[in-house]
Design brief:
Chain lengths: 196, 196
DNA sequence: TGAAATACGGAGGTGCCCTCCGTTTATCAA
DNA sequence: TTGATAAACGGAGGGCACCTCCGTATTTCA
């Protein structure tokens, strides 16, 4: 009775919008406190809605996380253009990788984003994942064009390596310094291979 | 009534030894098939013992994984001495990192080993984790002494980066080539910083 | 205003974690 | 050999989380 090209869509219900917003707020809080593996029932409780409501709005855990962190990853993508415009290609790349690490380690839930970089099979991150890929590809390509580095690696792998630092670096106090050191080393490695 | 320095310990019961072995076999099989997050109840079922028996032998999931993979990580440690004896320091390091990646990616359950590299709080891996740390430290130090590289990074971080490749590289077909590329880049980066 | 569309929310089935404890079995002393 | 006893077995059960389903409540629109 409803043809999917049809216009006659109702206005979305007020309670639906309200609950969706509540769930996002609650999820942000709970994920921040407990990490991305927190219980979805706790999220629902915190939001003051039933568990059924949570699942209607976000059919999978991934869908929820995706929604919560879409903003953050958008920010990351936007920062890339600014860096590219204002710095030498290699420095833009270096700085962006630092930003990437910070986002991942602070917003710990964003680690799930990395899973989507894998093969896109959990395709709910597909959007952000693809954008992230485009971003790092872009930055790397810039530096290559400028003759500053050579790449014989898929650029995303640089981010995967950083992901390992976040995942397995667990809470030491020099975490950030260590990540910066790794970034410098990887970039030095890429520079070492540039055409002379 | 039993003083803990006392000798009068009984011979361990035959069924206990048998069940322990069965559990290890079952765990190896189940972890290989389902990954390190497999259900412990399934392990017990596969082993043909009760769940209580599993928990008596291995009080935590970590303890079980540790036991299953202790052999493999021993092998890794042993390989390091051979490589160090037969190759130039940098090549020994390169080759060992390749081995490390292979072990991690094939025996997928070994990823849990990496968690122990963090802060030793889940101290059941403490033994293997500490040995792994000693091993990579040793290989790196050799290369530094030979003047082939300079390090301003904790050596373990190199393995963490590789861990990211395993964790987030999920099943692409060029996984191994990609890891080798990353290893080469990191080593080139370390070489770039060596004293001239 | 009231019918139809939409959303709510929690009960309930499933599966896993881990503990506890009554039953069974292997060891060892007599 | 025998039987007392330490040790091990194994599964029932409480708790928690996942996710589905559907009767009830609310909102929209004609």
């Amino acid at each position: 009775m409803i043809d999917n090209a049809g216009k006659p869509t109702r206005k979305p219900r007020a309670d639906a919008a309200r609950n969706r917003a509540r769930l996002l707020d609650a999820a942000k809080a709970v994920f921040a406190e407990r990490g991305g593996a927190a219980s979805l029932e706790e999220v629902a409780r915190t939001a003051g809605v039933g568990i059924g409501t949570l699942y209607r709005h976000f059919p999978t855990r991934d869908a929820l996380i995706e929604a919560v962190y879409r903003n953050e990853s958008d920010q990351l993508v936007r920062a890339a253009s600014e860096l590219a415009a204002s710095r030498p290609p290699v420095e833009a790349l270096r700085e962006w990788m630092r930003l990437f690490f910070n986002y991942m380690s602070v917003k710990h839930g964003m680690m799930e984003l990395l899973d989507s970089l894998a093969d896109g099979k959990s395709s709910l991150y597909a959007a952000s994942g693809a954008e992230t890929k485009r971003t790092i590809d872009f930055l790397v390509k810039n530096a290559v064009s400028a003759g500053e580095i050579a790449v014989d690696i898929e650029p995303l792998d640089l981010l995967r390596a950083l992901g390992g630092m976040v995942q397995y670096g667990g809470g030491r106090d020099d975490e950030e310094a260590a990540a910066h050191a790794l970034i410098d080393i990887m970039i030095a490695g890429l520079q070492a291979k540039r055409p002379r």
